[in-house]
Amino acid sequence: MSGVIIFWSVTGAQIMLALAMAIACWRLLRGPRAQDRVVAVDSLYVSAALLLVTIGIRTASLFYFEAALVIGLLSFVATVALAKFVMRGEVIE
Predict the structure, then answer these.
(1) pTM for this structure?
(2) Mapped to the 3 state alphabet, what secondary structure does 9-67 carry?
(3) If DSSP codes are grouped into helix, strand and coil, which group holds residue 90?
(4) CA atoms within 13 A on the CB side of 22
């Protein structure tokens, strides 16, 4: 019984995360300002990392958890660089 609950919970989470990624992509392409696009990229990174975590739960493979960790680290650096670029117009001083 608990396997069925986990299966449907993970499936529902994956569907909602895919929907969140689609909405973030729409905002990335359609966003009127650069700040909206930076937030959309950050949201896309977070959704992708969480989608990898749910795939790791489904397949019981540690590879997906490690990939989600790498995406999390790279997304933080990318968001800081993009925010600095939007604020000052340059990344490296």
Answers:
(1) 0.85
(2) HHHHHHHHHHHHHHHHHHHHHHCCCHHHHHHHHHHHHHHHHHHHHHHHHHHCCHHHHHH
(3) coil
(4) 6
CB-based contact 38:82 (threshold 8 Å) = yes
Q: Which two tokens stand for residue 81?
A: 């660089």
Q: ∠ CA 79-61-58 to the nearest 5 degrees?
A: 90
Residue labelled with tokens 């490690």: 66
The residue type at 21: M
**Tens digits of pLDDT across the chain (93 residues):** 788 999 999 999 999 999 999 999 999 999 898 889 989 999 999 999 999 999 999 999 999 999 999 999 999 999 888 888 888 877 666
Instruction: State the CB neighbour count (10 A cutoff) for residue 40.
Output: 19
